[in-house]
Amino acid sequence: MRDGQGWDATHDVIVVGSGAGAMTGALVAAGDGLDTVVLERTALLGGTSAYSGAACWLPGTQVQERAGLGDSTEAADAYLRALTGDTEAERRDAFLRHAPDLVARLEDDPAVEFEWRAFPDYVAAPGRMDAGRSFVPLDLAPELLGDLLPLVRPVIDRDRAGRGHRAGAPLTAGRALIGRLLLAATRTGNARVRTEHHVTGLVTEDGRVTGVEARTPDGTVRIRAGRGVLLAAGGFEGDDALRAEHRVPGSAAWSMAPRGTNTGELLRAVVEAGAATGLMDEAWWCPGTELPDGSAAFTLGLRGGLIVDGSGRRFANESLPYDRMGRAIAAVVGASAPTYLIFDSREGGALPAITVPSTDPAEHLAAGTWVRATRCRSLPLSSAYRQKR
Ligand SMILES: Cc1cc2nc3c(=O)[nH]c(=O)nc-3n(C[C@H](O)[C@H](O)[C@H](O)COP(=O)(O)OP(=O)(O)OC[C@H]3O[C@@H](n4cnc5c(N)ncnc54)[C@H](O)[C@@H]3O)c2cc1C
């Protein structure tokens, strides 16, 4: 029932989306005593964050201190400056300044616990930590989540197959992160989650955003925010038109977000409301393997093989950190031209790489997304050289 001003519900804070950033925002707001609601478009919480490894690059915190790493905000500052120069300096400084307090605050809640995991910082630059400074959430026993368990998006292989969590198995990586944040937020007694609430637009009054409009299975609702609206609903990787507008190569079908999500309608809404945007053609890139159904698998940790463009030309070192290799691929692929990975049978016909979701060689061969040559003719070097010239 709408009130006199046309609102179906009122909260202090509305959080749109339910990835790691959204759930962290919800926990912090609810922990401050604010009546907080999380609105998630799908039936499940966690978005791409639930599929992820959940390695958090938040430097200079108590987690690195516990691990005895000797990390510091100053060292991380030097590293980021070396990599990014003056780009977004204000945001970089805020990120570095607040990371230690944020992590301390999250870990104040017994539901949230992290441990350092060795992921070397990728680039040789001042401030680099050879063993890395990333940390991950501890695995989470499913019984701790109780009734909330079916709300957490499962690991990608099971999710894409329409299956839930494996019975009794601990939640790991991104599922543990989302599960832990959800547990902590709801335990404050100030946060609730609403799934199948697809936010389609912002409500503004006198130039201020005062609420949102959302599509639900029971029709459209208008929800008011007394204190603020936090938009943390992913990017626009699932929308071909926005990708084209911002010169993001590839196709929405290759997005790693849960199917049909992260389509950028909120980006359009904030731009319409007068918000500034930045770095729209930037992303955290990763090589992808095309799957038989036309979607993609996140592909990293190549142990062999060569990646070539459509003319057979090798264009980068396949051992680059995956974001760098992803960038190199993005620079050559254009709108639809794929690159190709050529690998041998050393691993019994399996891809010499990690893929998320996993890849099944037999399915690929049957679908024609992989082609196998049973014989390979090697040319003497001088002949290969002549050919090249
Ligand atoms: C396999 C894999 C491993 C990764 N590992 C790591 C890692 O270890 N460390 C790391 O830092 N990064 C990692 N990443 C990247 C990381 O997962 C993403 O950058 C991050 O999850 C993005 O978070 P987000 O909150 O912006 O979006 P998402 O997590 O995708 O969340 C967006 C949510 O908003 C919802 N939504 C969208 N539109 C609306 C709307 N209009 N109304 C309501 N809800 C909406 C979506 O349904 C979704 O649930 C990995 C990615 C992949 C694919």
Describe what you observe in this structure:
The protein is an alpha/beta fold. Among the domains are: 9-56 and 134-231, FAD/NAD(P)-binding domain; 285-389, Succinate dehydrogenase/fumarate reductase flavoprotein, catalytic domain (Flavocytochrome C3, Chain A, domain 1, Alpha-Beta Complex), CATH 3.90.700. It is 31% helix and 18% strand. It has 13 helices and 13 strands. It has helices at 20-31, 47-51, 62-66, 73-84, 89-108, 142-145, 156-160, 173-187, 240-245, 265-272, 322-333, 361-367, 381-388; strands at residues 9-16, 36-39, 114-116, 135-137, 191-194, 198-205, 208-216, 219-231, 288-290, 296-300, 306-308, 340-342, 354-356. The strands form four sheets. Strands 5-2-1-8-7-6 form a six-stranded mixed sheet. Strands 9-10-13 form a three-stranded antiparallel sheet, with no helix packed on it. Strand 1, helix 1 (20-31) and strand 2 (36-39) form a beta-alpha-beta unit. Helix 1 packs parallel to helix 8 (173-187) and helix 4 runs antiparallel to helix 5 (89-108). It is globular. It starts with 8 loop residues before the first strand and ends with a helix. Bound molecules: flavin-adenine dinucleotide (FAD). Residues 16-22, 39-42, 47-49, 51-55, 198-199, 232-234, 256-258, 261-262, 265-266, 284, 298, 356 line the site of flavin-adenine dinucleotide (FAD).
